[in-house]
């Protein structure tokens, strides 16, 4: 019996064979540009490269004025969120092998800043409105009464209740993928609601009512149109739309 093979699977040699990829990047420098414009760069790459590596190449070897955010480069900090081929992703998590054109055709990758937030330069956007919405939902443990004399004990089931929403890294991929947020920047947005969910359903927290009151207005959870863009865009796999619906149900039935 022979082992099954995958026709399109690259050989070990192919994994390290240099290829040339075209990055089509939406550039904007407020000091010289009146409008954003596209510029293309041919960049050497390997199948195992992450897109962030190619952005560094443009910055280091082609155009030092190119600007983008990045920090940890391991999908934890969320700094390098951008539109990659029209979809919000973290550049440090996107592998070239998943973007290459089929049948040996030339690969062109379009890269633009995330939507709904003002572009300051190139892929660098103003995150202040995003973090203002995050801070507005009081993303910290709220308790009343005397300080406890021992650790606040929580069962595994209670911890599991909000486990999914603890994964948020505040990259803004979900919020900036939301059509409501694009058209109405005053909407709290999915990320803020996800972080409210994380505390609303925490059995140790006593501030659920406060947060539900904050989200129970015209720019809160009721602005969500359940398009699932946010869930699709989340690089951590959070069920964002489900979390928003659970917050809605908590408001409707007055029960956490």
TrEMBL record:
Instruction: Spell out the PROSITE patterns in the cross-references.
Output: 4FE4S_FER_1 (PS00198), 4FE4S_FER_2 (PS51379)
Q: Does the keyword 4Fe-4S apply?
A: yes
Needed co-factor(s):
[2Fe-2S] cluster; [3Fe-4S] cluster; [4Fe-4S] cluster
Fetch the Gene3D superfamilies from UniProt.
Answer: 3.10.20.30, Alpha-helical ferredoxin
Top-level lineage group: Bacteria
What are its E.C. numbers?
1.3.5.1
* GO cellular component assignments: plasma membrane
Indicate the enzyme's highest-level EC class. oxidoreductase
Keyword annotations for this protein, in alphabetical order, are:
2Fe-2S, 3Fe-4S, 4Fe-4S, Iron, Iron-sulfur, Metal-binding, Oxidoreductase, Tricarboxylic acid cycle
User: Where is each 4Fe-4S ferredoxin-type domain found?
Assistant: 158-180
Task: Report the coiled-coil segments.
Answer: none
InterPro entries named in the record: 2Fe-2S_ferredoxin-like_sf, 4Fe4S_Fe-S-bd, 4Fe4S_Fe_S_CS, Beta-grasp_dom_sf, Helical_ferredxn, SDH/FRD_Iron-Sulfur, Succ_DH/fum_Rdtase_Fe-S, Succ_DH/fum_Rdtase_N
Q: What is a single Pfam family found in this protein's UniProt entry?
A: Fer2_3
Q: Which GO terms describe its biological process?
A: respiratory electron transport chain; tricarboxylic acid cycle
Q: Which GO terms describe its molecular function?
A: 2 iron, 2 sulfur cluster binding; 3 iron, 4 sulfur cluster binding; 4 iron, 4 sulfur cluster binding; electron transfer activity; metal ion binding; succinate dehydrogenase (quinone) activity
Q: Which NCBIfam families match?
A: dhsB, PRK05950.1
Family assignment? Belongs to the succinate dehydrogenase/fumarate reductase iron-sulfur protein family.
Name the UniProt record assigns to this protein? succinate dehydrogenase
* Organism, as annotated: Amycolatopsis vastitatis
Q: What is the lineage of its organism?
A: Bacteria, Bacillati, Actinomycetota, Actinomycetes, Pseudonocardiales
